């Protein structure tokens, strides 16, 4: 041929690649090109904060595995859990606002079972205990809940999360919500003076997949009470590092809204502000009452170095033929 090419049948060649990292922020199908032990991180959606005088949402479950077996030629379903949506009205609170599960190999194909993290438990409003989940949600005040909500529910080993905190109630100034749990620690009980919301549990970057802090719990709400010279303006409970949202608070009839959990980090949302100020008769329309939504989760997969086989053209230049022959990829 004029260009020095060779005409022959299509040839199968092997294209090598280094460790392949796939970060899923939405449900997708992932084809695998090498049989190996993959390194995976699965973070579920965080729970939302409750409505009014409420606890923060629990972080989504956080699990990783450095030896998950994957098989060449198999397509795996990856499911990324959404954060919980905070309720927009008061009771009933139960079963509202929890995050949804994330998983790798959702359908359990091949020899390995699905690897799943559980959505974070919702924070709850007045007098209700936080919901269980990957990490548990914080409990609501008014008059307060003395029990903590379960984290690591259902149980995994190592643990996928921690409990949410109980709360304080009983009138001025003890109307504050508990913090939601995080992978790095439980949500905290509001301090005994009742002048701060509970703190969200910390997140973690323990997975070798990346160094990002994830799965922090949401902070509890704080109800400012009494005269301005008595307590002054104080913030709601801070969300945990790793995407937890700050709790809302009530100050002279108004105040900032609760913060949502951070998307793709699985953070819990902050607890919503009280519905009525003790110092201001009647409802205050300017006060935000809705808790923060939970943050969506993520799934990250790192495959080992591999070889993806592809079919090449039947027309090859002499240089291409020589290079593939030397590399041992000509068949």
What's the quick description here?
With 331 residues, the chain is mainly β. The protein contains one helix and 14 strands, in the order ββββββββββββββα.
Can you give a write-up of this model?
There is one protein chain. This protein is mainly beta and 331 residues long. It folds into two domains: 37 residues, no CATH class; 286 residues, no CATH class. It is 3% helix and 20% strand. Strands 3-12-5-6 form a four-stranded antiparallel beta sheet, with no helix packed on it. The protein has a four-stranded antiparallel beta sheet with strand order 4-7-8-9, with no helix packed on it.
Let me know the largest β-sheet.
4 strands, antiparallel
Kindly report how far apart the N and C termini lie: 22 Å
Strand content: 15-25%
Q: For the largest beta sheet, what order do the strands appear in spatially?
A: 3-12-5-6
- How many H/I helices? 1
Question: Which structural class is indicated by helix and strand composition?
Answer: mainly beta
Work out the count of structural domains. Answer: 2
Instruction: Give the overall average pLDDT.
Output: 84
Helix content: under 10%
Return Rg in Å: 25 Å
Question: What is the element string, with H for helices and E for strands?
Answer: EEEEEEEEEEEEEEH
Query: Low-confidence runs (pLDDT<50, min 5 residues)?
Result: 226-232, 277-284
Assembly of the depicted chains? single chain
Shape: elongated
- Number of separate strands: 14
């Amino acid at each position: 041929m004029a260009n020095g090419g060779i005409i022959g049948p299509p040839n199968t060649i092997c294209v090598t690649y280094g460790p392949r990292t796939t970060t899923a922020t939405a449900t997708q199908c992932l084809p695998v090109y090498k049989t190996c032990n993959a390194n995976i991180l699965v973070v579920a959606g965080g729970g939302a904060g409750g409505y009014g005088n409420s606890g923060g949402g629990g972080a989504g479950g956080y699990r990783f595995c450095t030896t998950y077996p994957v098989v060449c030629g198999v397509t795996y379903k990856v499911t990324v859990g959404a954060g919980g949506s905070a309720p927009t009205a008061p009771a009933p609170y139960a079963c509202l606002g929890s995050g949804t599960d994330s998983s790798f190999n959702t359908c359990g194909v091949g020899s390995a079972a699905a690897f799943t993290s559980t959505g974070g438990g919702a924070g709850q409003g007045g007098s209700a205990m936080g919901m269980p989940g990957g990490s548990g949600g914080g409990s609501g005040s008014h008059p307060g809940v003395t029990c903590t909500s379960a984290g690591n529910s259902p149980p995994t080993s190592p643990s996928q999360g921690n409990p949410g905190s109980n709360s304080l109630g009983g009138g001025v100034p003890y109307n504050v919500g508990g913090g939601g749990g995080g992978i790095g620690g439980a949500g905290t009980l509001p301090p005994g003076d009742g002048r701060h919301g509970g703190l969200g549990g910390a997140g973690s970057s323990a997975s070798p997949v990346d160094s990002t802090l994830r799965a922090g719990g949401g902070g509890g709400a704080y109800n400012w009470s009494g005269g301005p010279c008595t307590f002054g303006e104080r913030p709601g409970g801070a969300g945990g590092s790793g995407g937890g949202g700050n709790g809302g608070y009530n100050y002279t009839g108004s105040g900032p809204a609760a913060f949502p959990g951070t998307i793709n980090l699985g953070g819990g949302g902050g607890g919503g502000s009280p519905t009525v100020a003790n110092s201001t008769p009647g409802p205050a329309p300017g006060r935000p009452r809705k808790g923060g939504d939970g943050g969506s989760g993520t799934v990250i997969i790192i495959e080992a170095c591999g070889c993806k086989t592809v079919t090449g053209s039947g027309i090859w230049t002499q240089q291409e033929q020589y290079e593939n022959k030397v590399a041992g990829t000509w068949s």
